[in-house]
Amino acid sequence: MQTRRLGKTGLEVGVIGFGGIKLPGIQQDTATEVLNKALDEKINFVDTARGYGDSEAKIGEAISYRRKEFFISTKSGARTADQMKKDIERSLKNLKTDFIDVYLVHNLRLPEQYETVMSPSGSLSALKEAKSQGLVKHIGFSSHRYRETMKLGIESGEFEVIMVAYNILNDELVDEDVLPLAKANDIGVIVMKPLAGGALAMPPPMRINLTKFWSIPLP
Question: How many angstroms separate the Cα of 215 from the Cα of each of 56, 151, 197, 209?
């Protein structure tokens, strides 16, 4: 597996990671088999979120005994410090780990959300406290479409990682300014939806039908 340095975190992560959003739809035994297979194939980055149902718990049950073989990233939609503290505690318990490599503020979009998160009583303060305690190693945020918010986060100096949607059907225009800005600030970039939510993995006849819904046809 080829690896890349995840920005200023210094983590050497595989170019292909494991996304845990679909885990709630399968049984634990299947999740255990799939996750262990991923680690066997040298995938060393696993992403999940508090908002992904029992995804964290399934990951913890499946591969916590192999903790030294992978980096774990999870996310919380909490905007206040109090709620973020609770979510961090729950994530640690679910994942059966003493620390989380990357913890993201989930889906940070609107300016007022950003202001709340960055305020003294906002969720960023709880993440920074958890980092000082060794419970969280690196802090980041994820976002959709709100490029101005993405740029504010990148330039704030508070985050080490950003997660954005990027694929050949829809790049949300992040390649115009967000990605270059992230590179200039040594911010690690995690790509979500690289296969457009599974659309790019569809059989050819179904791909053709996608032209009805997307402005860019597939070859």
Answer: 35, 26, 16, 12
Domain boundaries, given as residue ranges, for the chain: 3-212
Q: Measured on CA atoms in the order 82, 6, 196, 43, is the torsion positive or negative?
A: negative
Query: pLDDT at residue 172 above 80?
Result: no
pLDDT tens per residue across span 10-44: 999 999 999 999 999 999 999 999 999 999 999 99
Tokens read off for 134: 């060794």
What whole-number distance in Å separates Cα of residue 67 and Cα of residue 166?
A: 28
**Residue 219: is its pLDDT beyond 70?**
no
Q: Which CATH superfamily is domain 3-212 in?
A: NADP-dependent oxidoreductase domain (3.20.20.100)
| pLDDT tens sequence across 39-62 | 999 999 999 999 999 999 999 999
Q: List Cα–Cα distances, 141 to 75, 87, 113, 159, 210, in angstroms.
A: 8, 15, 12, 7, 30
Q: How far apart are CA 33 and CA 36, in angstroms?
A: 5
List, in sequence order, every residue forming a beta bridge with 76; answer none if it has no partner: 105
Residue 114: other Cβ atoms inside 10 A: 24
